[in-house]
Specification:
Layout lengths: L8 H7 L26 H25 L4 H4 L2 H13 L3 H29 L4 H16 L6 H8 L3 H25 L3 H9 L4 H18 L2 H18 L5 H10 L3 H31 L4
Helix pairs in contact: 4-13, 5-8, 5-11, 5-12, 7-8, 8-10, 8-11, 11-12, 11-13, 12-13
């Protein structure tokens, strides 16, 4: 057999069965695109929200006038607007709003401040934290609103009792939140500070407090709602002023329009305080590293 008779690679390839053309393969399915939602402009959102509110009020008024809605139990927007005018012109609207506002703010500030300091104090001693923690958890499990009558008896029916109830609802939340920040502190950071010659107070001021500050700030919006709840509950039980007292009085006299007026004013006050605390939170976060 000569060299010319040796089969070459080209001859071997020619003997193999032909493969189907690449074009015969099924085409790959195109990748599905994620649905893209276009955000509405602000004016469109406001217009939609206002439209829903106007439609609900108009439907309520129409239902009350036609008898589909019992006006005795649900009142109607026209009567509520009339009562709102009387409430602000001849009633004690500003006195009640100021009373509820003061008790809420004082309870919010005292509860948040004292609770945060109490939670930060657990950093100083693990034994101290272990001894006190069961009592804090026990106090947290107790419905604070059940203690409201006792607080009213101790502090009276004035502003002090409303502040005490609001503070009782906020202080435990702030304590546990600050303590959670303390437990999340990196021990290597503490060792680094001590290795550089820092004292215990310097570690607390320069490391612990700045590290736990985001945890403390995150509870502000929760506490303002809890403080308002505590103030209203205190006014329900016994009070000379406040929006809670107005709601209780209107319910006892079956003045449903006045109930809606007090609820509307209370909701507006809650939104204003919540927005203010949210703005304060954003301002505080600007100088805090997340």
């Amino acid at each position: 057999m000569t060299v010319q008779d040796t089969p070459t690679l080209r001859d071997i390839a020619a003997l193999q069965p032909a493969r189907p053309a690449e074009s015969a393969k099924p085409a790959a399915r195109p990748a599905r695109r994620l649905p893209v939602q276009k955000d509405w402009p602000v004016w469109a959102l406001v217009l939609a929200q206002a439209g829903i509110l106007v439609a609900a009020i108009a439907g309520w008024e129409l239902g009350a006038r036609t008898g589909l809605v019992d006006a005795f139990f649900w009142s109607q927007p026209s009567a509520i607007f009339h009562t709102l005018t009387i409430f602000f012109t001849t009633g004690d609207a500003w006195t009640d709003i100021g009373f509820t506002f003061r008790s809420t703010i004082f309870g919010f500030l005292l509860g948040t401040t004292l609770g945060s300091l109490f939670g930060l104090s657990f950093w100083w001693s693990r034994n101290y934290a272990a001894v006190v923690q069961p009592y804090i958890i026990c106090f947290e499990s107790i419905p604070k609103l059940a203690l409201a009558p006792l607080i009213i008896l101790v502090f009276g029916i004035g502003l002090s009792s409303k502040v005490a109830i609001a503070m009782a609802l906020t202080i435990v939340v702030s304590t546990l939140t600050a303590y959670a920040g303390v437990k999340a502190l990196d021990p290597d950071g503490e060792k680094l500070f001590y290795s550089l010659g820092a004292t215990r107070m310097q570690v607390f001021r320069k490391l612990v407090v700045p590290f736990c500050l985001p945890w403390i700030i995150s509870v502000l919006r929760v506490n303002i709602g809890l403080a308002l709840t505590g103030a209203i509950v205190g006014e329900f039980i016994a009070s000379q002023h406040g929006l809670g007292r107005a709601i209780l009085y209107a319910g006892q006299t079956y003045d449903i329009a006045l109930v809606w007026v007090a609820v509307l004013v209370l909701s507006t006050l809650a939104v204003v305080m919540y927005a203010t605390v949210s703005w304060l939170e954003r301002m505080l976060r600007k100088g805090v590293r997340q």
